[in-house]
Amino acid sequence: MANEKPESSDRSVVLGDPRGDHYRLRPGAVDMTRPPLPMQQAEIAAQPENIVVDLRKCALIVIDMQNDFCSRAGWLGSLGVDLTGIRRIFDPINAALTAARARGIPIIWVNWGVRADRTNLPAVVRYPFNRVGCGVGLGDRFAGAAADRPDADSRVLQKDSWGAAVVPELAARPDDIYVDKHRISGFCDTPLDSILRALQVKTLFFAGINADHCVLATLMDASFHGYDTLLLEDCTATCSPDFCLQATLHNVRFCFGFTVRHGDFVTAARTGA
Description:
Blueprint (H helix, E strand, L loop, with lengths): L2 E5 L4 E5 L5 E5 L2 E3 L9 E4 L6 E4 L3 E6 L3 H4 L4 H4 L5 H4 L2 H14 L3 E6 L10 H4 L50 E5 L10 H7 L4 E6 L2 H14 L3 E9 L5 H15 L1 E3 L1 H10 L2
Parallel strand pairs: 7-8, 7-10, 8-9, 10-11, 11-12
Antiparallel strand pairs: 1-2, 2-3, 3-4, 5-6
Helix pairs in contact: 4-9, 7-8
């Protein structure tokens, strides 16, 4: 994120990300003024009311679109979970990613990245993923691997494993921003808040899974931290019953922010002033 970019016109160097927090260094002085970038205003159709945002202060956060959750050869697939609804959001997410990149909106992937020793995972975090104590949960060795799983001997959602990687159907790029999480919320014990503040981001669009678990918890924490929170409702899914998704949409609209269709986000990103 921190880049040094010489500028021949004033012989200065930009120290930091010019989209957000940065210094300009020149011989004999450090410029700390951080001139604001011109506003890029866009109105977006949303529920419960339409919204107006500054696209320069936005980020797109995509949560848990990982092989162990979304691939048929992954952990949930091996347990017989129906992934149809999850895989249905691939195309809308890709459309949102394309529009965000074209506008220069930062893309942040927030994913489980379990330590090999699991020393930072308390029992209360591990229990929902292995309720009977003899199954396969967070960081456990994968069992019953599908024939097309490339690392049948890996551990579930372990950092740097195939299962923890973003599914190849989504257009993740090396120059996107990646945050490993170790809780249902992507803000707890992670650098996510520091990254957003360094980028001087105020408004967050959310996509990913599961809508009623990690997406909602991260969105709620974002609201508690003072960010504007916008759920891309057709870029979000869950393997819970449908009433859980409907309750999530209601809670976001009623308490924590707004919901937006991905097509309206794409249009705003393309046409915003």
